[in-house]
Amino acid sequence: MLYGLIDGELRQPRAPGERAACRACAGPLLALLPGDGPPQWRHVAGDCDAWDEPELAWHAAWKERFPAALREIPLEDPATSERHRADLCAPGTGGRRTVVELQHAPLPEAEIWRREDFYLRQGRLYWLLHVHDEGQGALRTCMQVSIAAGGRSARSQGADFTVLRLPGRSVQFIEQWKRSSAYVLLDIGGQLHHFATRRRSEDLLRELQRGEFALRPLKTESFLAVVAPPAPAPP
User: Fold this and answer.
1) Are 100 and 86 in contact (CB under 8 A)?
2) pLDDT digits 0-9 by tens, 200-219
3) Residues 49 and 24 sit within 8 Å (Cβ to Cβ)
4) Per the confidence metrics, is the pTM higher than 0.70?
């Protein structure tokens, strides 16, 4: 986790040996300053969230785009007492929330469903997936080749998509995410794309063959405004 409580301030560690408290469990945290990643905290007695994963510079950069009050929010399902820490979470109307989960590492499909089941009980969920080549069979390169080659136009729920085909051996990645019950966004080399899933585009997915997927470009500013709308200007 990137943020711990020190004297009432929620922040990243600044020096080796610093200690903080977890705002979810109040457990002690120890500063971790890896040479290849952002400064972060590690639970002394094991993380209180079983879904915790190592934080990369990519995670930190996205979290820093949102207000500090929305980062690393502990959530609990009142019916089951299950607890997890959302990467980003914004309040909504009627007690509903908007959760953003930043995902760098591949996830088994059963794990995707497990996490969606929890977060969708809170409100709406956006997956933001880091599409990269490391350990993913040149996935980013294949995606960029597909986008550059172009495809056919399609429309779903009032939005225009481009249907593309993925070359290479990474078909399983797109097939499992097409079945997501949440919104899915792809960060491909710093460019944001809305990836069609059954959440809003089941009509479009019925037309796609295995290995085909649909994207539409999305401005980062538009995504930020959806999750955390700017406060209205004073009268």
Assistant:
1) yes
2) 899 999 999 999 999 999 99
3) yes
4) yes
